[in-house]
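Researcher: Structure for this, please.
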Amino acid sequence: MMDELMSLAESHIVTADTLDVEEIRRSFPIFSRPENEGLVYLDNAATVQRPRQVLDAIVEFYIKHNANPHRGAYRLSEQATQQQERARSKVARFIGAGSSEQIIFTRNATEAINFVARGWGDKFIKAGDEILVSKLEHHSNLVPWQMAAKRTGATLRFIPFDAHGNLILDDLDKIINRKTKLVAITQASNALGTMPPLDRIIAAAHAVGAKVLVDGAQAVAHIPVNVTRLNADFYAFSGHKMMGPLGIGVLYGKRQWLEEMDPVHFGGDMISDVRELDSTWNELPWKFEAGTQNVAGAVGLAAAIDFIKTIGLKRIEAHNRSLTVYALEELAKMDQIKVYGSGDARGPVISFELAGIHPHDLATFLDQRNIAIRAGHHCAKLVMKSLGVSSTARISFYIYNSLHDIDFFIAALREAKGFFSKWR
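Model: Predicted structure, C-alpha coordinate format:
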Protein backbone atom coordinates (compact mmCIF):
# COMPACT_ATOMS: atom_id res chain seq x y z
CA MET A 1 0.00 0.00 0.00
CA MET A 2 2.84 2.44 0.80
CA ASP A 3 4.33 2.02 -2.69
CA GLU A 4 0.97 2.92 -4.19
CA LEU A 5 0.70 5.93 -1.86
CA MET A 6 4.11 7.16 -3.00
CA SER A 7 3.02 6.81 -6.62
CA LEU A 8 -0.16 8.73 -5.91
CA ALA A 9 1.67 11.50 -4.11
CA GLU A 10 4.49 11.78 -6.64
CA SER A 11 2.12 12.01 -9.61
CA HIS A 12 0.38 15.08 -8.16
CA ILE A 13 1.42 18.15 -6.24
CA VAL A 14 0.20 17.50 -2.70
CA THR A 15 0.03 20.30 -0.15
CA ALA A 16 -1.58 20.23 3.25
CA ASP A 17 -3.19 23.68 3.19
CA THR A 18 -4.59 24.31 -0.26
CA LEU A 19 -7.78 26.02 0.96
CA ASP A 20 -8.79 28.18 3.91
CA VAL A 21 -11.13 25.56 5.33
CA GLU A 22 -12.23 27.59 8.34
CA GLU A 23 -13.26 30.47 6.10
CA ILE A 24 -15.09 28.09 3.77
CA ARG A 25 -16.93 26.41 6.64
CA ARG A 26 -18.37 29.75 7.67
CA SER A 27 -20.32 29.77 4.40
CA PHE A 28 -22.15 26.58 5.39
CA PRO A 29 -24.93 27.18 7.94
CA ILE A 30 -25.16 23.51 8.90
CA PHE A 31 -21.76 23.71 10.64
CA SER A 32 -22.79 26.69 12.76
CA ARG A 33 -25.81 25.02 14.35
CA PRO A 34 -25.18 24.24 18.05
CA GLU A 35 -26.07 20.57 17.64
CA ASN A 36 -23.52 20.27 14.82
CA GLU A 37 -20.61 21.93 16.61
CA GLY A 38 -17.44 20.11 15.64
CA LEU A 39 -19.23 18.01 13.01
CA VAL A 40 -16.80 16.00 10.89
CA TYR A 41 -18.82 15.31 7.75
CA LEU A 42 -17.18 12.58 5.67
CA ASP A 43 -20.11 11.38 3.54
CA ASN A 44 -19.60 13.74 0.64
CA ALA A 45 -19.84 11.03 -1.99
CA ALA A 46 -23.49 10.64 -0.99
CA THR A 47 -24.29 14.35 -0.87
CA VAL A 48 -22.42 17.51 0.01
CA GLN A 49 -23.58 20.39 2.18
CA ARG A 50 -24.98 23.64 0.78
CA PRO A 51 -23.39 27.06 1.27
CA ARG A 52 -25.46 30.07 2.29
CA GLN A 53 -25.11 31.53 -1.21
CA VAL A 54 -27.04 28.60 -2.68
CA LEU A 55 -29.73 28.69 0.00
CA ASP A 56 -30.12 32.46 -0.44
CA ALA A 57 -30.49 32.09 -4.22
CA ILE A 58 -33.30 29.56 -3.80
CA VAL A 59 -35.16 31.72 -1.27
CA GLU A 60 -34.68 34.82 -3.42
CA PHE A 61 -36.23 33.07 -6.41
CA TYR A 62 -39.35 32.16 -4.46
CA ILE A 63 -39.62 35.63 -2.91
CA LYS A 64 -38.93 37.71 -6.03
CA HIS A 65 -39.50 35.67 -9.18
CA ASN A 66 -41.81 32.75 -8.43
CA ALA A 67 -44.00 31.88 -11.40
CA ASN A 68 -44.36 29.14 -14.00
CA PRO A 69 -41.70 29.62 -16.70
CA HIS A 70 -42.32 29.49 -20.46
CA ARG A 71 -46.07 29.83 -20.00
CA GLY A 72 -47.06 33.33 -19.01
CA ALA A 73 -46.95 36.63 -20.88
CA TYR A 74 -46.63 38.56 -17.63
CA ARG A 75 -43.58 39.93 -15.84
CA LEU A 76 -43.09 37.28 -13.15
CA SER A 77 -43.36 34.42 -15.63
CA GLU A 78 -40.84 36.09 -17.90
CA GLN A 79 -38.51 36.54 -14.92
CA ALA A 80 -38.84 32.85 -13.99
CA THR A 81 -38.06 31.92 -17.59
CA GLN A 82 -34.99 34.13 -17.56
CA GLN A 83 -33.82 32.61 -14.28
CA GLN A 84 -34.16 29.09 -15.62
CA GLU A 85 -32.47 29.77 -18.94
CA ARG A 86 -29.62 31.73 -17.33
CA ALA A 87 -29.01 28.73 -15.11
CA ARG A 88 -29.01 26.46 -18.16
CA SER A 89 -26.44 28.65 -19.89
CA LYS A 90 -24.29 28.70 -16.77
CA VAL A 91 -24.33 24.90 -16.59
CA ALA A 92 -23.40 24.67 -20.28
CA ARG A 93 -20.39 26.94 -19.78
CA PHE A 94 -19.35 25.13 -16.61
CA ILE A 95 -19.05 21.76 -18.34
CA GLY A 96 -17.87 23.09 -21.71
CA ALA A 97 -20.98 22.26 -23.70
CA GLY A 98 -21.28 23.85 -27.12
CA SER A 99 -24.78 25.15 -26.49
CA SER A 100 -27.27 25.53 -23.67
CA GLU A 101 -29.73 23.60 -25.84
CA GLN A 102 -27.67 20.50 -25.05
CA ILE A 103 -28.44 20.84 -21.34
CA ILE A 104 -31.53 18.97 -20.12
CA PHE A 105 -32.66 19.57 -16.56
CA THR A 106 -33.62 16.38 -14.73
CA ARG A 107 -34.22 15.42 -11.11
CA ASN A 108 -30.77 13.84 -10.74
CA ALA A 109 -28.12 11.81 -12.54
CA THR A 110 -30.26 8.69 -12.14
CA GLU A 111 -33.12 10.20 -14.09
CA ALA A 112 -30.69 11.55 -16.70
CA ILE A 113 -29.30 8.06 -17.31
CA ASN A 114 -32.81 6.62 -17.49
CA PHE A 115 -33.66 9.25 -20.12
CA VAL A 116 -30.88 7.89 -22.32
CA ALA A 117 -31.73 4.24 -21.63
CA ARG A 118 -35.36 4.86 -22.60
CA GLY A 119 -35.20 7.66 -25.14
CA TRP A 120 -32.09 6.55 -27.01
CA GLY A 121 -31.62 2.92 -25.97
CA ASP A 122 -35.14 1.72 -26.70
CA LYS A 123 -34.99 3.35 -30.12
CA PHE A 124 -31.54 2.34 -31.32
CA ILE A 125 -30.44 -0.75 -29.37
CA LYS A 126 -31.62 -3.98 -30.96
CA ALA A 127 -31.47 -7.71 -30.31
CA GLY A 128 -27.92 -8.96 -30.85
CA ASP A 129 -26.36 -5.65 -29.81
CA GLU A 130 -24.20 -5.37 -26.72
CA ILE A 131 -24.32 -2.85 -23.89
CA LEU A 132 -21.08 -2.54 -21.97
CA VAL A 133 -20.78 -1.33 -18.38
CA SER A 134 -18.07 -1.69 -15.76
CA LYS A 135 -18.34 -3.52 -12.47
CA LEU A 136 -17.50 -0.23 -10.75
CA GLU A 137 -20.86 1.28 -11.56
CA HIS A 138 -23.36 2.76 -9.17
CA HIS A 139 -26.73 1.04 -9.54
CA SER A 140 -27.96 4.18 -11.31
CA ASN A 141 -25.63 3.38 -14.20
CA LEU A 142 -26.32 -0.35 -14.12
CA VAL A 143 -29.98 -1.12 -13.49
CA PRO A 144 -31.26 1.11 -16.34
CA TRP A 145 -29.06 -0.87 -18.73
CA GLN A 146 -30.19 -4.19 -17.29
CA MET A 147 -33.74 -3.17 -18.07
CA ALA A 148 -32.81 -1.80 -21.50
CA ALA A 149 -31.18 -5.13 -22.35
CA LYS A 150 -34.31 -7.00 -21.31
CA ARG A 151 -36.57 -4.71 -23.33
CA THR A 152 -34.45 -4.78 -26.49
CA GLY A 153 -32.95 -8.28 -26.43
CA ALA A 154 -29.41 -6.88 -26.23
CA THR A 155 -26.64 -8.53 -24.22
CA LEU A 156 -25.25 -6.77 -21.16
CA ARG A 157 -21.48 -7.22 -20.75
CA PHE A 158 -19.06 -6.08 -18.07
CA ILE A 159 -15.55 -4.73 -17.65
CA PRO A 160 -14.11 -6.20 -14.41
CA PHE A 161 -11.61 -4.50 -12.12
CA ASP A 162 -8.46 -5.79 -10.44
CA ALA A 163 -7.38 -5.89 -6.80
CA HIS A 164 -6.35 -2.24 -6.98
CA GLY A 165 -9.75 -1.14 -8.24
CA ASN A 166 -8.50 -0.42 -11.76
CA LEU A 167 -10.52 -1.60 -14.75
CA ILE A 168 -8.95 -4.53 -16.60
CA LEU A 169 -8.58 -3.18 -20.13
CA ASP A 170 -5.93 -5.51 -21.59
CA ASP A 171 -8.37 -6.83 -24.19
CA LEU A 172 -10.21 -3.57 -24.79
CA ASP A 173 -10.31 -4.16 -28.55
CA LYS A 174 -12.19 -7.41 -27.89
CA ILE A 175 -14.36 -6.10 -25.07
CA ILE A 176 -15.51 -3.19 -27.24
CA ASN A 177 -16.35 -4.67 -30.62
CA ARG A 178 -18.68 -4.28 -33.59
CA LYS A 179 -21.60 -5.55 -31.53
CA THR A 180 -21.11 -2.85 -28.89
CA LYS A 181 -23.86 -0.27 -29.19
CA LEU A 182 -23.32 1.70 -26.01
CA VAL A 183 -20.72 1.96 -23.25
CA ALA A 184 -21.92 3.30 -19.88
CA ILE A 185 -19.01 4.20 -17.62
CA THR A 186 -18.37 6.16 -14.45
CA GLN A 187 -15.93 9.04 -14.39
CA ALA A 188 -15.17 8.30 -10.74
CA SER A 189 -16.35 5.34 -8.66
CA ASN A 190 -18.47 6.25 -5.66
CA ALA A 191 -17.29 3.10 -3.86
CA LEU A 192 -13.55 2.98 -4.56
CA GLY A 193 -12.73 6.39 -6.00
CA THR A 194 -11.31 4.81 -9.16
CA MET A 195 -11.16 7.16 -12.16
CA PRO A 196 -11.11 5.06 -15.35
CA PRO A 197 -9.10 6.21 -18.41
CA LEU A 198 -12.08 7.68 -20.22
CA ASP A 199 -10.10 8.99 -23.19
CA ARG A 200 -8.98 5.46 -24.05
CA ILE A 201 -12.43 3.93 -23.51
CA ILE A 202 -14.28 6.62 -25.46
CA ALA A 203 -11.85 6.41 -28.37
CA ALA A 204 -12.25 2.61 -28.53
CA ALA A 205 -16.03 2.90 -28.43
CA HIS A 206 -16.20 5.51 -31.16
CA ALA A 207 -13.85 3.46 -33.33
CA VAL A 208 -16.59 0.82 -33.65
CA GLY A 209 -19.47 3.28 -33.83
CA ALA A 210 -20.64 2.83 -30.23
CA LYS A 211 -21.99 5.66 -28.12
CA VAL A 212 -20.67 6.48 -24.64
CA LEU A 213 -22.56 7.69 -21.58
CA VAL A 214 -20.42 9.01 -18.73
CA ASP A 215 -21.75 9.14 -15.19
CA GLY A 216 -20.06 12.28 -13.89
CA ALA A 217 -21.86 12.50 -10.55
CA GLN A 218 -18.69 11.88 -8.51
CA ALA A 219 -16.42 14.01 -10.68
CA VAL A 220 -18.02 17.25 -11.82
CA ALA A 221 -17.65 19.01 -8.44
CA HIS A 222 -14.08 17.81 -7.92
CA ILE A 223 -12.19 18.18 -11.19
CA PRO A 224 -12.45 20.41 -14.27
CA VAL A 225 -14.77 18.80 -16.83
CA ASN A 226 -15.11 19.76 -20.49
CA VAL A 227 -17.61 17.51 -22.23
CA THR A 228 -16.61 18.75 -25.67
CA ARG A 229 -12.98 17.69 -25.17
CA LEU A 230 -14.06 14.54 -23.36
CA ASN A 231 -16.09 13.66 -26.46
CA ALA A 232 -18.66 11.64 -24.55
CA ASP A 233 -22.00 11.32 -26.31
CA PHE A 234 -23.94 11.74 -23.07
CA TYR A 235 -22.90 13.06 -19.66
CA ALA A 236 -25.02 12.94 -16.49
CA PHE A 237 -24.62 14.46 -13.04
CA SER A 238 -26.58 15.55 -9.96
CA GLY A 239 -26.73 19.01 -8.43
CA HIS A 240 -26.74 17.83 -4.82
CA LYS A 241 -23.24 16.37 -5.12
CA MET A 242 -21.87 19.78 -6.12
CA MET A 243 -23.52 21.96 -3.44
CA GLY A 244 -26.69 22.50 -5.45
CA PRO A 245 -30.16 21.54 -4.20
CA LEU A 246 -31.59 18.08 -3.97
CA GLY A 247 -33.87 17.23 -6.88
CA ILE A 248 -31.98 18.88 -9.74
CA GLY A 249 -29.72 17.10 -12.21
CA VAL A 250 -28.38 17.48 -15.72
CA LEU A 251 -28.19 15.43 -18.88
CA TYR A 252 -25.81 16.67 -21.54
CA GLY A 253 -25.91 15.11 -24.98
CA LYS A 254 -24.42 15.71 -28.37
CA ARG A 255 -27.02 17.61 -30.36
CA GLN A 256 -27.46 14.94 -33.03
CA TRP A 257 -28.28 12.24 -30.50
CA LEU A 258 -30.63 14.48 -28.52
CA GLU A 259 -32.43 15.36 -31.74
CA GLU A 260 -32.81 11.68 -32.58
CA MET A 261 -33.86 10.61 -29.08
CA ASP A 262 -37.49 10.22 -28.16
CA PRO A 263 -38.81 12.10 -25.14
CA VAL A 264 -39.49 10.00 -22.06
CA HIS A 265 -41.93 12.20 -20.15
CA PHE A 266 -44.99 13.62 -21.86
CA GLY A 267 -47.32 16.51 -21.07
CA GLY A 268 -47.15 20.25 -20.86
CA ASP A 269 -44.53 22.41 -22.57
CA MET A 270 -42.69 19.55 -24.28
CA ILE A 271 -44.99 19.63 -27.31
CA SER A 272 -44.95 21.58 -30.55
CA ASP A 273 -48.46 20.64 -31.62
CA VAL A 274 -51.19 18.40 -30.24
CA ARG A 275 -53.87 16.75 -32.33
CA GLU A 276 -56.53 14.27 -31.30
CA LEU A 277 -54.46 11.13 -31.91
CA ASP A 278 -50.85 12.29 -31.94
CA SER A 279 -48.47 15.10 -31.08
CA THR A 280 -45.19 16.60 -32.20
CA TRP A 281 -42.36 17.63 -29.92
CA ASN A 282 -40.86 20.93 -28.92
CA GLU A 283 -37.31 21.96 -29.81
CA LEU A 284 -34.28 21.17 -27.67
CA PRO A 285 -33.98 21.22 -24.76
CA TRP A 286 -37.65 21.57 -23.91
CA LYS A 287 -38.89 18.39 -25.62
CA PHE A 288 -37.39 16.49 -22.65
CA GLU A 289 -38.73 18.78 -19.93
CA ALA A 290 -42.40 17.92 -19.49
CA GLY A 291 -44.45 19.77 -16.92
CA THR A 292 -43.45 22.47 -14.47
CA GLN A 293 -39.73 22.30 -13.87
CA ASN A 294 -37.69 22.76 -10.70
CA VAL A 295 -36.70 26.33 -11.52
CA ALA A 296 -35.57 27.05 -7.96
CA GLY A 297 -33.37 23.95 -8.18
CA ALA A 298 -31.80 25.22 -11.42
CA VAL A 299 -31.23 28.63 -9.82
CA GLY A 300 -29.62 26.96 -6.80
CA LEU A 301 -27.42 24.86 -9.08
CA ALA A 302 -26.27 28.01 -10.87
CA ALA A 303 -25.41 29.58 -7.51
CA ALA A 304 -23.43 26.44 -6.61
CA ILE A 305 -21.47 26.80 -9.84
CA ASP A 306 -20.69 30.42 -8.94
CA PHE A 307 -19.48 29.29 -5.51
CA ILE A 308 -17.26 26.59 -7.03
CA LYS A 309 -15.79 29.13 -9.44
CA THR A 310 -14.87 31.52 -6.61
CA ILE A 311 -12.67 28.76 -5.20
CA GLY A 312 -11.53 27.15 -8.46
CA LEU A 313 -11.80 23.53 -9.48
CA LYS A 314 -8.05 23.07 -9.73
CA ARG A 315 -7.67 24.22 -6.13
CA ILE A 316 -10.55 21.97 -5.08
CA GLU A 317 -8.92 19.03 -6.87
CA ALA A 318 -5.58 19.69 -5.17
CA HIS A 319 -7.21 20.06 -1.76
CA ASN A 320 -9.19 16.84 -2.09
CA ARG A 321 -6.15 14.95 -3.28
CA SER A 322 -4.14 16.26 -0.36
CA LEU A 323 -6.76 14.99 2.08
CA THR A 324 -6.99 11.63 0.32
CA VAL A 325 -3.25 11.02 0.36
CA TYR A 326 -3.00 12.05 4.00
CA ALA A 327 -5.92 9.83 5.03
CA LEU A 328 -4.43 6.85 3.18
CA GLU A 329 -1.08 7.44 4.88
CA GLU A 330 -2.69 7.53 8.32
CA LEU A 331 -4.82 4.45 7.64
CA ALA A 332 -1.71 2.58 6.48
CA LYS A 333 -0.16 3.14 9.93
CA MET A 334 -2.96 1.20 11.61
CA ASP A 335 -3.13 -2.56 11.90
CA GLN A 336 -6.34 -4.50 11.26
CA ILE A 337 -7.33 -1.99 8.56
CA LYS A 338 -8.03 -3.10 5.01
CA VAL A 339 -8.39 -0.38 2.37
CA TYR A 340 -10.20 -1.39 -0.81
CA GLY A 341 -8.91 0.00 -4.06
CA SER A 342 -5.61 1.81 -4.42
CA GLY A 343 -5.40 2.89 -8.03
CA ASP A 344 -3.22 5.88 -8.91
CA ALA A 345 -6.10 7.79 -10.53
CA ARG A 346 -8.70 8.14 -7.81
CA GLY A 347 -11.17 10.62 -6.43
CA PRO A 348 -11.51 11.64 -2.76
CA VAL A 349 -13.23 8.40 -1.71
CA ILE A 350 -11.82 5.65 0.53
CA SER A 351 -13.61 2.39 1.33
CA PHE A 352 -12.18 0.33 4.14
CA GLU A 353 -12.81 -2.36 6.75
CA LEU A 354 -11.75 -2.40 10.39
CA ALA A 355 -11.27 -6.06 11.28
CA GLY A 356 -13.93 -7.54 13.52
CA ILE A 357 -16.24 -4.50 13.36
CA HIS A 358 -19.24 -4.42 11.05
CA PRO A 359 -19.30 -1.18 9.01
CA HIS A 360 -22.74 -0.28 10.36
CA ASP A 361 -21.56 -0.70 13.95
CA LEU A 362 -18.51 1.42 13.19
CA ALA A 363 -20.64 4.15 11.58
CA THR A 364 -22.89 4.23 14.65
CA PHE A 365 -19.89 4.44 16.98
CA LEU A 366 -18.40 7.30 14.96
CA ASP A 367 -21.72 9.11 14.82
CA GLN A 368 -21.67 9.26 18.61
CA ARG A 369 -18.43 11.20 18.23
CA ASN A 370 -19.99 13.56 15.68
CA ILE A 371 -18.29 11.92 12.70
CA ALA A 372 -20.50 11.13 9.72
CA ILE A 373 -19.29 8.32 7.45
CA ARG A 374 -21.08 5.91 5.11
CA ALA A 375 -21.56 2.20 5.72
CA GLY A 376 -23.15 -0.33 3.38
CA HIS A 377 -22.90 -1.40 -0.22
CA HIS A 378 -23.02 2.23 -1.47
CA CYS A 379 -25.50 1.36 -4.23
CA ALA A 380 -22.65 -0.56 -5.85
CA LYS A 381 -23.35 -4.21 -5.12
CA LEU A 382 -21.26 -5.44 -8.05
CA VAL A 383 -18.27 -3.75 -6.43
CA MET A 384 -18.99 -5.47 -3.12
CA LYS A 385 -19.48 -8.88 -4.78
CA SER A 386 -16.21 -8.45 -6.68
CA LEU A 387 -14.46 -7.62 -3.39
CA GLY A 388 -16.09 -10.57 -1.65
CA VAL A 389 -17.74 -8.45 1.04
CA SER A 390 -21.30 -7.41 1.79
CA SER A 391 -20.43 -3.85 2.79
CA THR A 392 -17.63 -1.44 3.59
CA ALA A 393 -17.13 1.72 5.59
CA ARG A 394 -16.50 4.76 3.40
CA ILE A 395 -15.12 8.23 3.92
CA SER A 396 -15.17 10.95 1.28
CA PHE A 397 -13.94 14.53 1.30
CA TYR A 398 -14.84 18.00 0.10
CA ILE A 399 -13.82 21.61 0.48
CA TYR A 400 -14.86 22.04 4.12
CA ASN A 401 -12.83 19.04 5.32
CA SER A 402 -9.39 19.47 6.84
CA LEU A 403 -6.40 17.47 8.02
CA HIS A 404 -7.78 17.98 11.52
CA ASP A 405 -10.95 16.15 10.47
CA ILE A 406 -8.83 13.20 9.39
CA ASP A 407 -6.81 13.21 12.62
CA PHE A 408 -10.03 13.28 14.63
CA PHE A 409 -11.42 10.43 12.53
CA ILE A 410 -8.27 8.31 12.93
CA ALA A 411 -8.29 8.85 16.70
CA ALA A 412 -11.91 7.72 16.79
CA LEU A 413 -11.03 4.60 14.76
CA ARG A 414 -8.39 3.70 17.33
CA GLU A 415 -10.95 4.23 20.07
CA ALA A 416 -13.41 2.01 18.22
CA LYS A 417 -10.84 -0.78 18.01
CA GLY A 418 -10.41 -0.70 21.77
CA PHE A 419 -14.13 -0.49 22.46
CA PHE A 420 -15.18 -3.37 20.22
CA SER A 421 -12.26 -5.59 21.28
CA LYS A 422 -13.99 -5.94 24.65
CA TRP A 423 -16.88 -7.79 23.03
CA ARG A 424 -14.99 -10.30 20.94
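Researcher: Any notable elements?
Model: The chain has two domains: 2-47+312-421, 55-309. The first strand starts at residue 40 and ends at 41.
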